[in-house]
Here is the input.
Amino acid sequence: MNKSKNKKKYSVGYKVSFGLFLIIALINIYPLVFSIFCSFKGNLEIFQSFMALPEKLRVENYVTAWKVGNIGKYFLNTIILAAGTLFISGLLGAMASYILARFRFKAKKYVYFIFIAGMMIPIQAVLIPLSYVFGKLGMMNNYPMLIMLYAAFCFPLTVLILTGFMNSIPTELEEAMVIDGAGIGQVFFKMVIPLTMPGIISVSIFNFIQVWNNLLFPLVFISDREKGTISMGLLAFFGEYSTNYSASMAGICLTTIPIIIAYVLFQEKIENGLMSGAVKG
Here is the structure.
């Protein structure tokens, strides 16, 4: 009797939890489904019934989105910015995390706090002073500057995740390499980096999403349309007096696909990296 009661209680709790998670999943997936349906409709059809299925698949909306939004060019520009940001934030973040995880010095806790405190600074709070400084220095429309700016805002999360991950790596492995005559550079690049790769991949996905979705930085620091990003391309569909909603929805779908593909491909490594970094060995 006790076993049957416990089983009944567990099944009710399981069903309630499953129902709540299902509702949350539907709320999160609805905007994507809505965008996909509307991307195959015309503007008039969207306003008539945005919940209904498209009467006719208007594939030309994607062609319009690709041409008007200059998606191809902006796609390549964003990939360049994201690749540079991931390389710099990943390499420097791994170096800083290794020092915080393995070296002992008096100001270690304060340095770590300063890194993590960067996560609490909103981007909007630094736009005006940064635009003033970069304007005075003549560094507007500058990709290297924008990459360093992206990397600076990705740095706190990178240090947070990689420091926890490196703390889980046994120190005996490093000691064995040092006994064999390896220097700190060899230990870091030949042993620590390969072992930390799941954590680096995990944080790189989050940083990639942050760069891909960022609109404020390119909108403020990039005035040359040829150097625009994918988020700036979506603004082309919104005019002063009219808006091409169907093409804009198609553009949103085109810009969302890379994020979904990246997460699907690296889902297991992202979860393993976060879980491994959360447990100190």
Q: What stands out?
A: The chain has one domain: 59-278.
